[in-house]
Amino acid sequence: MKRIINLLTTCALAFPVFMAVGCSGNSGEEEPVGNEVSLEASKTSVVANGNDQVTFTVKSNGKDVTASAKISCTDPSGEEKELENATFSTKTAGDYTFAATYDSRTSKTVKVTATAPVQVEEKYFRRVCVMDITGTWCTNCPAAGQTLEMLAQNRPDRMVILAVHGDGPAEKDPMTTPVMDMLDKMFTISGFPSVVVDLRESIDNAGLSSGVIDAYDLSREEYPATCGLRVESSYNESTGKIDITVGITSNTGGEYRLAAIILEDGITAKQIQDGYEKPDFKHFNVVRKLLSSNLVGDSAGTLEADKEKTMEFSTEVDSEWVVDNLRVAVYATDSSGFINNIVECKAKNGSCDYKYNE
Asked: pTM to 2 decimals?
């Protein structure tokens, strides 16, 4: 039976909205003339479901002063309240206006529109992307990886894990890629291990298991799949390249972006675990290369409902990769910038077709 759930019709921007006004002075230190107080919003539209939220940042002369600033919110009725924790969510649709005050100076206003959820039939089988932030130098990371594998096993074919390696404060990780820096810029990763779910929220080690479960449930319940994906991947031995064709369809239509990532399983490399070095540790789900220009993906344009569009990705196989152990993960982000659906298949002559809810 197909489920009826709320379709999040958020139209978030991929980059923060930046608004500022000229001002002068700051308590405790002398600042140049023309110094500004600015209010930045992570997006300008939310779904009025009480879960979708905007995060605000206040800056003075380019310095983050959010913790010391006050942010006011004027709701659609004209009532003004002070915002708590620099975040905003609501269950009431309408236009909301925000302004920040710091050191007797006030920013220009930022408008956020809250849109009412729309009911839609979820046609496509939904999978959730779980990015495991890990490192060979991180003693607690193997336990976090095992926890994620257990959660995935308890949710068959519903979670796709991407192990994103990053360098430590004093030690390099041989499997680090630029994806780590991209994630850090998007979420300011506070420590290892951490998890990013559907490019929507990050969870640190302190609440990893329960946090991932909550984020997974939120994706399934409040962020339904409005698109489906099919993938065909082939390896050409003569050219040493992997060629990938991705098809995408949507039962609602709309703007989507596609990202493709090469993963490798069974990599033997050292790992610090429980304080001890293990030289022959086996690493799985390792992100080897992002084939799109950024994590949000490359534009697939505006899709007409139930009409397929295709995109091509290609990459040369690195000499360190084992072709038979490579997989391709492909995901689609919608206008919110969040991952709407994700699929995976073998990189060497692998494929997956559209999957629908029964």
From this structure: 0.71
